[in-house]
Specification:
alpha+beta, T-fold, nine-stranded antiparallel sheet, two-stranded antiparallel sheet
Length: about 325
């Protein structure tokens, strides 16, 4: 893995009389680049030590929850090796189980074999037969799993996939560390975002929402909206079917699989952006909205005073959007 030669970049020094000093820390994690912006006011920790600690946390997440790291705890469990779940594994499993119950099965980290079968998990399969889908539905999913991670029994058949929650969870883990050393103003970007406090201009953070155009792989290149924070803690996550999909025989197969029926979704909703108090919940709820579709997603967001959302969809050949009141 490559390392940045310049690990720490000072973004701004704002009004030295207030003691504000914003820096940006960058590095590699989870198959991409992460960036953390923070205000060092009142923080005694050395910036290089902060960078090392963030990298250490992200490495621990990789060796615990990544399905792409063959030596991770998750990969070993999925291969059928019995593991002793650590605190991080137990935490994300418990949260995932709660969200599975809350979503009526529309969010399901234990549907790993279905994601694999369609080519969106940790294998290169694709286009499973109806019989294969039915077989997997009968054996995988949280309905076949224990309520707590300590009771997990590895058999190589039941497999977990935390991709729909891990990046948001990673933001929460890093944010928790930053809170612990006294940081109040921060933006943690690990593919998904967590922010709190103010930006270097002294204003609440503003996040752009990418336009869900097929193949749009560059965040910020084309945007369809802005969300402005109120200065409080928020996870900000967008889920969509415009970056992970494949086309066979003229038909598009998206990475959003409905774990209740075993098939990729096919509806007008192109992307869902969710604002929640935690990154992990924003991540999971964004996936949940993509599974249930436009109308039910809109009803869900409206029913939750703790959430805000933006839904981008296609109607009559045009891209349109719906926003909740606080967006």
């Amino acid at each position: 893995m490559r390392k940045f030669s310049a690990l720490i970049l000072v973004l701004a020094l704002i009004c030295s009389c207030t003691g504000d000093k914003y820096i940006a820390i960058r590095g590699y994690a989870q198959g991409g680049v992460y960036q953390v912006k923070l205000n060092l006011r009142g923080v005694k920790e050395d910036p290089r030590a902060i960078k090392e600690n963030i990298d250490s946390l992200l490495s621990k997440i990789d060796f615990t929850l990544s399905g792409y790291n063959k030596e991770s705890m998750l990969s070993k469990f999925n291969r059928g090796e019995q593991v002793s779940p650590d605190a991080m594994f137990k935490d994300i499993y418990a949260l995932s189980y709660r969200l599975w119950e809350e979503s009526g099965g529309a969010f399901d980290v234990a549907a790993g074999p279905l994601y694999d079968a369609w080519g969106f998990g940790f294998s290169k399969d694709s286009l499973p037969s109806d019989a294969k889908v039915a077989q997997l539905l009968a054996t995988c999913g949280m309905a076949h799993m224990p309520q707590d991670a300590d009771s997990l029994v590895a058999d190589g058949v039941k497999r977990l996939n935390f991709n729909a929650i891990a990046q948001g969870y990673s933001c929460d883990v890093v944010a928790s560390y930053l809170y612990g050393i006294g940081v109040k103003d921060m933006l943690v970007d690990i593919g998904e975002i967590f922010c709190d406090g103010l930006n270097p201009s002294g204003k609440p953070w503003t996040i752009a929402v990418d336009t869900p155009i097929d193949g749009n792989q560059t965040p910020g290149e084309s945007t369809s909206g802005l969300w402005s924070s109120d200065g409080g803690p928020h996870g900000v996550v967008t889920s969509g079917n415009y970056r992970k999909f494949y086309i066979k025989d003229g038909r598009k197969y998206s990475h959003t699989i409905d774990p209740r029926n075993g098939y990729p979704v096919s509806h007008q909703l192109l992307s869902a952006t969710i604002i929640a108090p935690r990154g992990a919940e924003a991540d999971a709820y964004a996936t949940f909205c993509m599974v249930i579709g436009l109308d039910k997603a809109r009803e869900f967001i409206d029913s939750r005073p703790d959430l805000e959302g933006m839904l981008i969809y296609e109607k009559d050949g045009e891209m349109r959007s719906w926003r909740s009141g606080g967006f």
